[in-house]
Amino acid sequence: MTRVRHKRTHHARRDVSRAARTRARKLDPDQIQANMNDAAVLAALQNPTSLDVDKPGLGLFYCVPCDRHFPSEADREKHGRSKLHKRVCKKMEQEKAYTVEESMWAAGVGVDNKQRGSAAGDNKKQTAASSA
Ligand SMILES: [Zn+2]
């Protein structure tokens, strides 16, 4: 009997259930891209007018591409030099978010223009009318 692998299965995720909480959910990439493309929203996120006591650093230090709050300006600058932030920024620049139409098309759900069903129905009606 061989040894069952125990190591290197968690990838530094110590508390999986905590990460899966609804309140820990981050914005989706299309929402982040919408925030980055809208200048007014971007300015409001980077320069908040009100303090949020539930967020780290009272919500003052926010990284828009990563959707993360930081406790201080120094921490945000340190994050801006990190590999994780650079990777996220590169991904946001290169990959366009899917539109609803693209996702529906990928799932096989198309626009119902009634061509197939109604044409068959018309043919049946025509044959029924011609035979009668
Ligand atoms: Zn970042």
Q: What structural class results from the helix and strand content?
A: mainly alpha
Number of beta-strand segments: 2
- Characterize the main sheet: 2 strands, antiparallel
- CATH topology category name of the domain at 25-101: Double Stranded RNA Binding Domain
Oligomer: single chain
| Gyration radius from CA atoms, angstroms | 26 Å
Along the chain, the helix and strand elements come as: HHHEEHHHH
Distance between the termini: 77 Å
| Mean pLDDT, all residues | 82
Tell me what you see in this structure:
This protein has a domain at 25-101: Double Stranded RNA Binding Domain (2-Layer Sandwich), CATH 3.30.160. The longest helix has 17 residues, at 115-131. It has a two-stranded antiparallel ribbon with strand order 1-2. It is built from 7 helices and 2 strands. The chain has helices spanning 16-19, 29-37, 39-46, 73-80, 83-94, 100-106, 115-131, and strands spanning 61-63, 68-70. It is mainly alpha-helical and 132 residues long. The model has no long low-confidence stretch (mean pLDDT 82). The N and C termini lie far apart (77 Å). Bound molecules: zinc ion (ZN). The site of zinc ion has 6 residues, from helix 5.
Task: Give the structure's gist in a few sentences.
The protein contains 7 helices and 2 strands, in the order H-H-H-E-E-H-H-H-H. The model has no long low-confidence stretch (mean pLDDT 82). The site of zinc ion has 6 residues, from helix 5.
Task: Give short descriptive properties of this protein.
7 helices; 132 residues; Double Stranded RNA Binding Domain; mainly alpha; two-stranded antiparallel ribbon; binds zinc ion
